[in-house]
Fold these 2 entries.
Entry 1:
Amino acid sequence: MRLIPLPLLLLASLAQAATPASVPHEQAEALYQQHCQSCHGANRLGAAGPALLPESLGRIKPDEVRAVIRDGRPASQMAAYASVLDAPQIDALVSYLYQPAATAPTWSDAEIRASHRLLADPDKLPSRAQHGADPLNLFVVVEAGDHHVSILDGDKFEVLTRFQSRFALHGGPKFSPDGRFVYFASRDGWISLYDLHNLTLVAEVRAGLNTRNLAVSNDGRWVLVGNYLPGNLVLLDARDLSLVKHIPALGQDGTPSRVSAVYTAPPRDSFVIALKDVQEVWELSYAGEPTFVPRRIQSRDVLDDFSFTPDYRHLLATSRKAKGGQVIDLDSGAAVIDIALPGMPHLGSGIYWKRDGKWVFATPNVSQGLISVLDLQNWKLIKEIPTEGPGFFMRSHINSAYAWTDVFFGPNNDAVHLIDKQTLEIAHTLRPMPGKNAAHVEFTRDGRYVLLSVWDRDGALIVYDSKTLEEIKRIPMNKPSGKYNVGNKIEFAEGTSH
Ligand code: HEC
C-alpha cells in the first residue's frame, strides 16, 4: 500500500475540528481521563486502544471520530458512549483529540527498548518453508477493516493462515531479501517481524508514536523506520528488531522535520529518505560497516513521496511549488528538472515499463481523473490518459500487456481501468463489484493472475486471469487494502512500486 495523502486529510480535519464546543477544554480533558485513558493511554499515546493524537487522527475526519465515540466500533473493545456522554461532551472530546498535547510527546530509546518483545528465536525455527506452498509466490494480504493479515498461497489462492495485526498497518509490508521474513509498520509505530516459513510472529517493537513506513536493507541486516512523531529515523536490527540507534530528522540548519518516506535502493546499497519539512533528501549507505551518517541532498521543494527510475539513479518526487514533479540525480546530488504536471500526481505509486524499447513512467493523480505518462529519457510528458476519476494505485507486470489503475476517489470508484502499455489507451474498464470501491491490484509472480481488492466491509479479493480477464475466484474479505507478492517484492519487479 502506498502512503495516504495525509496533508489533504489533515487540512480538512483541522478546519472542521475548529467548531466551537460549549464544553471547555479542561472539562474535555477530564472526560478523557475519566472515560478513555484506560485504553487510549494517559497521554493519548495508545495502549489497548490506538493512539489518539492529532497526527494519528489525520487519516480520519472529525465526523468519523464523533461517530466512533457515539456509536463505538463493531467487534472491538471500542464501546458506544451515546448513553454516557451527551452531544456537547462528545463534541468537546472530538476537539480535544485534534489538539496537540500540552507538552509534545516524546519516545526515547529506553521506551523503544522497553517495548521490545521477542516471541520466537529465529535461529531455532526451521529455515525451510513448513507450509508446502511456493514460498516465493505467497501473498501477504492486509485486511484493514478488522486489522488482520492473511497469508495466501499464490498458486491455489487459499488462505494458509490469518492473524491479528497491530492497529492500522501503514505504508506496505517489506520483505527480507530471501523472502522468508516480512516486516509490518503500524500507524502508531509498532513494527512486527513475521516468519513466512513458519507462519509465526517473531518480534515486535514500538519504534515511534506515529510512523510513515519502513524499509529493509538489501543485505537483510537493517530495518529503517521513518516517523512523523517524533520526527526521526529509527534503525533496528532486522534479525530481531532490537534497537540500533535513532537519527533525529534535523535539516542542515537544525530545523526539525517529519519523515515522509523511507525506501531501499538495492543497487546503491542505501536507504533513501524523504523529509517533509526541510528541503533535503537523505541517503544512508548500508554498504560494508556503515556509520549511518546521512548524505544530504538539497531538493527544490519538500518531498512527500517518490519513485526511483529503473536504474535507481534518479528520484521522481512530487513538488508542490513546481505544481508537478521534481527529478533528483542521486549520483551528482543535483536537482535535474521540474516537471509540470496537472493536479496532484501520486508519484510514489507510479510504475515504469518499456514501450518501443524505451522506459516510460506512469503516475496516477489524486486530484484529477488522468494518468500522466512520462518519457524517462528526456522527462517529457508523452500522454495524459483521461480516466473516470482521480486514482491512487497502479500496477503491472513484465508479462502483462496492461497497466491496471483504480478510480479511487469520486462516484466511479467501483471501476478499474486497464491501460494498454503500448498504445497508452484504455483497453478495458472493469466493475468488479458495482457500487463498491475497487482498488489495489497485484500480480502473481509469473504475471498470469491478478488479485484485486474491493475495499468494503463486505469486500473481496478477486482473482482474474491477467490475459483473458476471466474471474477465477472471489474470496470475501473485510477491506483488503493491499496485497503483496513475495517474489515480485524481493525482485523489485518491473510494474510494482517499491
Ligand atoms: C475498553 C477500551 C476503550 C475505551 C475505554 C475507549 N476506547 Fe476508543 N477505541 C478502543 C479500541 C480497541 C479502538 C480500535 C477499534 C477498531 O478496531 O477500529 C478504539 C478506537 C477509537 C477511535 C478511533 C481511532 C481511529 O484512529 O480509528 C476513537 C476516536 C476513540 N476510540 C475514542 C475514544 C474516546 C474519546 C473514548 C472515551 C470516551 C474511548 N475511545 C474509550 C478502545 C477503547
Entry 2:
Amino acid sequence: MAAAALSSPHLTLDVPSNHDTPNSAGMLHYYDEPVHLSLAGDNYDDGPTRGLGTDDGPGLVTPVDNTRLTLSGDDGKCGSDGHSGTCLGLMHQCTPSPNILCLDMDETLGSFGPFCIAAKIWRHFEGSFPPPQIAVATHLSQGAFRPGMKELLNTAASLKQSGHLDEIVIFTSASNEGGYVDYVRQCVELFSNLPPGTVSRIISKEHSTMPAPDGATMKDLGILVDNKSYPGSQPGDARNCIIVDDKPHNICQGTNVCLSVRPYDQWVSPMELLEHLPGWDRRASQECIEHAGGKLPDIQVPDSIADTKTGLSLAAVVHDAKQYAPKPWSDTLAADTDLFHTASRIISRFAPQ
Ligand SMILES: [Mg+2]
C-alpha cells in the first residue's frame, strides 16, 4: 500500500498499460511506455492474485453465418523450423501433432484498454489486481468481454474434455508484465464458469522476438509445440494449431490457420471498477465527473484531492482518456456475433461430423 509514499512528491507511480489495441484512429498504440503520474511512491507488487473459478458445463453456440469468417484450413506448412511444407509433411507422417486452439486477447476476446488502466491503478495501491469477481461484475461483463466469449470458451473446454483438443492457449502480443495476462485469463475463466487452468498456457509479448509491420508481434504457432510440451511431436509442428485473432496478417503460418474476427473495441468506462477500490472517495470522484459533463478527458482534478488515492487515480484515467478517446456505446458491437460463429467453426475444425 502506497499511503505513506503518497505524501512524497518526489516519487513517481508508473501505471503502464499494455496491449495491442488500436486506438480510435485505427492506429496501433502502445501502453508499454509508462504513464507517469504526478504522484507518490511506487511500491506496488507485481504479483497477481490467482485461483478462482467454478466448474460448470458447456454453453450453447448459436447458429452461424459463415460468410465473413476465413477459416482455417490446414495446408500442412509451417515456417517455424525453416522446412518446406512438403518436407515437414514427410516428417509428420510419423509423429502426432497436437490439436491446439489459440486465442488472441485484445480486440478478440474483448476490449481491455480502460480495464488495463484500472487494474494497474488498483494493483499500485493494493499490491494486487482487483478481485476477479469485482472486475467481472463491474467492468468485464458490462461490455468489455466480447459477446460470445463465454460460449467460445465453453465450446473449447468441451472439445478439450472430449479429447478433440489438446490445449487452449492465450496467444497475445500484449505484455504479461506483472502477470497482467495471467490475470485476464483468470477473469476469462471465472466469467466463463470454467475451472482455473482451462486455458493452460499463455504466450505473450515476452515470448515473441519478431515485430510485426503494424507494431504488434508476429505470432509463430510453431513455438507452441516443443519437446517439453509435446515430447512425442515434432518441434514446431503446428499443423493442427488454429488461432482466433483480429490480425490474421500477423500469423507466421499464414491467414489460413486463423479464424479471423473483426476487431472488437467497445469502450467501457473504468470508473465503476475504480469506485470499488478500497478507500475510494466516491463523492469527490463523482463531483469531478459531473463538473466535466461526464467526459473523462475533461476532468479537472482539484488540488484538494490531487494527492489522494482518488485524485491520483483520476489523473491517470484522464491521462489515458486524453490519449485514447472514450467512445460512445455501440449497439452494433453489443450485438457482435463473431465469437459465436467462431465457436461453431472450431467444432467443425476439431470435431467434424
Ligand atoms: Mg488482437
